[in-house]
Specification:
79 residues, mainly alpha
């Protein structure tokens, strides 16, 4: 029997058997399909665009924070 090791990006891999994870994935896919049937296609497109805008907003926040850190480093080095 081989020992399973957890991957850093999936620390809970060994907590649940693969079969259980497959059932969860299948349930998630079926839930997604059923929700798609409740809403018009325009809703999905609007949701996708809203999600993209939120990600772009976070990117802007992160870029600004990184720029400020870089400026602080420059000021610290000059001192």
């Amino acid at each position: 029997m081989t020992e399973q090791t957890t991957r850093p990006d999936k620390p809970f891999d060994n907590w649940f058997p693969e079969e259980a994870r497959e059932h969860v994935r299948a349930a998630h896919q079926e839930l997604h399909k059923s929700l798609e049937g409740l809403f018009p296609p325009e809703f999905a497109e609007h949701r996708r665009k809203a999600h993209k805008e939120m990600l772009l907003a976070w990117r802007s926040v992160i870029d600004t924070a990184l720029a400020r850190m870089k400026e602080d480093e420059k000021r610290t080095k000059k001192s």
